[in-house]
Specification:
558 residues; alpha/beta; Rossmann fold; 2 domains; 9-stranded mixed sheet; 7-stranded mixed sheet; 16 strands; 33% helix
């Protein structure tokens, strides 16, 4: 990995100075576009290193994987370009602390937009930063989701939110170090009300430290940009907190961005002959996060340990947004008929999670005064009217059947054009569509076990296409299903989607760090797994493990 950067050093310095790391926002030409800021810092006596992002500038990588390329498998990988930017910034700080001109005890960070959000992350993660001034780089999750400003943001603007954190949490990690939040009041990417909310809540943390004077908010008129007011306040802020100089913002002055005082792109270029041939920037998303391996499982103890480790990881880092306290199911019998199944039809609704009510359609092939097997047929969002019935007749003939639609289907569905938004917005809140659907199915199984006529130990799940991912993960977490029946399940969760986000969603936060969907059948034993048609090639890994351990292998029905 190579990070193009320019280092600005004041003339005639005789002792180590305070230093600023300037992180660029989403602007083409990067250090060329923002050069007036590091130059001004140097004129004020600071050392300033300005570093480019992997998206723009001299070395071009990817920030917009989910945003515009359909690389929603980034979520499954636990990859976020903000992680690379944060690492590059940490290494930039390493570089500064190694310089003889720099006082390593006097380091600050600032930037706007993407550089603004990075300023929050860098200061939260690296305690060597003693003061931070983020500009137009943060807002509350609540505001982003409610106003849909999430749609306008790059993938790097919010972490893969494994622990459901907000910028209040990030601000709490910065406290009690000096923090100056700068925000334009007409910014289309952030509502000013959400910034005030952040300032108030983080301010309470500073108050607990007895450091209320260390946090400030600067509001400026206009859109998503700097203003003379914010720039001068920032320069004054760093002089006070890193140089111990009480200089007014007017005395600190503004940048000089006149054309005659700008250096050209060529003059500021780092790689005069182009990027190094071994540069990894364009493919760093493929290697930055270590993914799962192919464990050698030679006995039942190793399989059990592997299953436990995967489940423990998933519960924390993939399904951590499951409600801490399950809601009451509050079932309602919506419809009852004597036809449908041999012994009638019941349509129930229940509440899997507050704010949602889902329907499940039971077709009874056995009387309810005896316990019998139930096959839950998962509906698909894009299915035809009779598709689930046709599938049920092939895989569950003669059995009690429940046709179930999770979130994303029927009354609990959404229009296809919302799929892109929901996939991104969900990840910002620590969820994915699949993780919510897995939770729905787990609550559905829980409800089914309360009904007369159903043997709690003989519940099976049947799913087609992408819903196979939901079925397998739910069966793994439940641990008590009799069987899983699959038709054409995805071979992996590490594949891109359509750039517009429409169609199948298979991503689950961080899951590929420990497993992939084709490994789950091996972990389900003694639950049996059956395929209609051919067994996809990747799933033969599970079949080999089961065969080696003398377990029931994957089976096929035509």
């Amino acid at each position: 990995m190579y990070v193009p950067a320019n280092l600005y050093i004041p003339d005639n310095i005789t002792e180590p100075r305070a230093a600023i790391l300037y992180v660029c926002g989403h602007s083409p030409l990067q250090k060329v576009h923002y050069q007036s800021h590091p130059r001004k810092f140097a004129q004020l006596g600071f050392i300033c290193l300005v570093i480019e992002t992997i998206q723009f500038g001299e070395v071009r990588g990817e920030h917009w994987g989910c945003y515009s390329k359909g690389w929603f498998n980034w979520y499954s990988r636990g990859y976020n370009p903000a992680g690379v930017e944060l690492w590059n910034a940490i290494r930039g700080i390493d570089l500064l602390t190694d310089r003889p001109e720099v006082n390593p005890q006097k380091l600050g960070v600032t930037g706007i937009s993407g550089g603004g959000s990075q300023s929050w992350y860098i200061a939260a993660v690296d305690s060597r930063i003693k003061a931070v001034a983020p500009v137009c780089g943060a807002g509350t999750l609540k505001s982003h989701i409610e106003t849909r400003t999430v749609d306008g943001h790059c993938d790097c603007m919010m972490p893969t939110n494994t622990y459901q954190q907000d910028f209040t949490d990030i601000g709490a990690l910065i406290a009690p170090r000096p923090l100056l939040i700068c925000q334009a009041n007409g910014d289309g990417m952030y509502s000013i009300e959400s910034i005030r909310d952040l300032y108030y809540k983080i301010g309470n943390i500073y108050k607990m430290y007895g450091a209320s004077d260390k946090i400030g908010l600067v509001e400026t008129p206009g859109g998503h940009s700097y203003h003379k007011i914010s720039r001068e306040k920032i320069f004054s802020f760093f002089m006070a907190n890193l140089m111990d100089k009480n200089v007014s913002s007017e005395e600190a002055g503004d940048i000089d961005d006149t054309e005659q005082n700008q250096l050209s792109e060529e003059e500021l270029r780092v790689f005069t002959d182009g990027p190094p041939t071994d540069d990894r920037t364009t493919t760093i998303q493929d290697s930055f996060v270590k993914l799962h391996g192919m464990p050698e499982l030679s006995n039942e103890t190793q399989l059990s340990m592997f299953r436990d480790s995967v489940k423990n990881f998933l519960k924390i880092k993939s399904f951590g947004a499951f409600p801490e306290k399950p809601s009451a199911l509050n079932p309602v019998l919506e419809f009852k008929a004597l036809d449908g199944g041999k012994y009638g039809e019941d349509i129930y609704s229940f509440v899997p999670e507050d704010g949602w009510r889902l329907k499940i359609d039971f077709l009874w092939e056995h009387p309810k005064d005896s316990l019998n097997q139930l096959v839950i047929i998962l509906r698909n969002a894009d299915e035809g009217r009779w598709d689930s019935y046709s599938f049920a007749s092939k895989v569950a003939q003669g059995e009690n059947i429940a046709l179930f639609g999770t979130r994303g289907f029927g009354d609990a569905g959404w229009s296809p054009e919302l799929q892109w938004h929901i996939r991104r917005a969900s990840a910002w809140t620590g969820r994915t569509i699949v993780s919510m659907q897995v939770y729905d199915l787990l609550r559905c199984i829980e409800f089914c076990r309360t009904l007369p006529g159903i043997d709690p130990a003989k519940i099976s799940i049947a799913a087609r296409n992408e819903m196979g991912v939901v079925a397998l993960y739910a069966a793994l977490l439940d641990g008590k299903c009799k069987s899983v029946i699959l038709n054409n399940p995805p071979e992996t969760q590490d594949l891109p989607s359509d750039p517009d986000g429409k169609g199948a969603a298979t991503e689950i936060l961080n899951c590929l760090r420990v497993t992939d969907v084709y490994q789950i059948p091996a972990m389900l034993t003694p639950t049996t797994v059956t395929f209609t048609g051919e067994i996809p090639d990747n799933y033969l890994w599970s079949n080999d493990i089961l065969e080696k351990l003398g377990k029931t292998k994957l089976t096929v029905i035509q």
